[in-house]
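Name: DUF3240 domain-containing protein
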Amino acid sequence: MSEIFLLTLIAPPAYEEPLVDWLLQYEHSCGFSSFPISGHSSNPESLTLVEQVTGRKRQIRFDVQLAAADLGSLLDRLKTDFAGSAIHYRVTPITEAGSL
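Structure predicted for DUF3240 domain-containing protein:
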């Protein structure tokens, strides 16, 4: 079994459609999921006044499962195409995945 990873992207809501379009254009063998989330921070400078009052920041999360061979090029393109967008990412190894 080849090594696979989960790329998680946390993006401002304004980037939901651009990221969906961008990920759909990327040619890789695995799919992705997206869903709304609430971000919470103890750093009030990163929140608007409304977000400080409600205690949450609306975000969109994308989970992209992909092979190790595809990870580097996808991250390079992401960093170029979405520079300055405040998109946060993390990469996690997947030890097992499948369908039942």
